[in-house]
Amino acid sequence: MENKALRTVQDVGAIAFLIAFSHFVPLPLYSYAVVCFLVIWFLLRREGKTFRSIGLVKNGFSVKAVLIGLVSALLWVGFMQFIYIPVIKNLFVVPDYTEYDFIKGNISKLLMIITAAWLVGGFYEEVVFRGYIQNVLEKRFFKGSAVLWSIIVTSVLFGLYHWQQDIFGVIAAILGGLFWGILYKKFDNNLWIPILSHAIFDTITLVLIYTDRFGNLYR
Fold first, then answer.
1. What's the whole-number mean pLDDT along residues 185-212?
2. What is the pTM of this model?
3. Minimum mean pLDDT among 15-29, 91-105, 154-168: which range?
4. How is the chain classified by DSSP, letter by letter?
């Protein structure tokens, strides 16, 4: 019982660290991602696991995975563009989202941010949330319960991770977390699929912001 309690404290501490570190220790040029990635590597290795254990396998990156990532990203862009944003703008007074205004009309900055979107938004965030946190919740916190609970809790944490945005950005992130969490489980924990979907979604959205066609809201 004592070992189980200690393990629970360690898991909670690891999850809290992964969510809070980038906000409270703002290292330059997304280098916080390297630190957190190494922490996950250490945590997995301590259990005799590798990144393959969370779905980051070589044969998972395939033409099929790319196509699923592309189609799902287009669906999610459509949801955000034609359902989520119009609905909240109709119901609430929503301030214009200006965080990425600096890329408008500047192709070099657009390409720089797209690169960051693939490395951090797509790869890093999916490894942390769907790959590590969702698996920890499923296997140790909600063991024997519906998988959906691990997806829901991970998605809420993913939303809170975006607390630097306003409430509408947090909600958008929660919904995105649900979407990518379900994709992850639907395709047998192939982590490349939510990585590709997330990265392509960010890319399309950044291009729409660059051309001032995204409803002036969230990436």
1. 95
2. 0.92
3. 91-105
4. -HHHHHHHHHHHHHHHHHHHHHHHS--GGGTHHHHHHHHHHHHHHHTT--GGGGT--GGGSSHHHHHHHHHHHHHHHHHIIIIIHHHHHHHS--PPP-TTGGGTT-HHHHHHHHHHIIIIIIIIHHIIIIIIIHHHIIIIISTTS-HHHHHHHHHHHHHHHTTTS-HHHHHHHHHHHHHHHHHHHHTTT-THHHHHHHHHHHHHHHHHHHTT-STT---
